[in-house]
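A.,

Following up on our hallway conversation. Structure tokens first:
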């Protein structure tokens, strides 16, 4: 299970890097930048929850600039890879207890949180793609998982 999620985290990293470069090239469309900032902030929130650390602070929809995203993408990826590498496969059955940003308590299996994390990124990258199309990018890169695996 660990290797599976490491592979997905690498896919997520690759796809984020691909879209951030295109977002900058497209003139940093406001909505695309907001979506990318939210996605990166959410990765940090979930990382802290899984590590029983306080929320990183700040907004879940931060007003970040696109020129800071590449470094954040790399830092988030490195943090998740280090975290996952420290686990054994049985850890993915562990329950993570956390509070959402409104203070409501929840508990979920780590494997479900990881699945959510990856799906959340895929969802928002699709929205970013739509915004890039509206900004005039005619041909979007293919960020589907199966294409990533084929090229790997």
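Then the amino acids I'd put at each of the 152 positions:
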């Amino acid at each position: 299970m660990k290797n599976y999620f490491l592979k997905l985290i690498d896919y997520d990293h690759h796809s984020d890097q691909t879209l951030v470069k295109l977002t900058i090239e497209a003139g940093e469309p406001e909505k695309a930048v907001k979506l990318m900032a939210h996605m990166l902030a959410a990765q940090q929130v979930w990382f802290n929850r899984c590590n029983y650390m306080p929320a990183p602070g700040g907004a879940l929809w931060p007003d970040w600039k696109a020129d800071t995203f590449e470094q954040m993408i790399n830092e988030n990826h490195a943090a998740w890879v280090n975290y996952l590498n420290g686990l054994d496969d049985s850890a993915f059955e562990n329950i993570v207890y956390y509070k959402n940003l409104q203070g409501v308590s929840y508990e979920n299996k780590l494997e479900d949180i990881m699945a959510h994390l990856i799906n959340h990124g895929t969802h928002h990258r699709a929205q970013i793609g739509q915004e890039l199309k509206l900004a005039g990018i005619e041909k979007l890169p293919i960020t589907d998982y199966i294409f990533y695996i084929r090229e790997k």
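The chain has a mean pLDDT of 95. Curious whether your intuition agrees with the design.

B.
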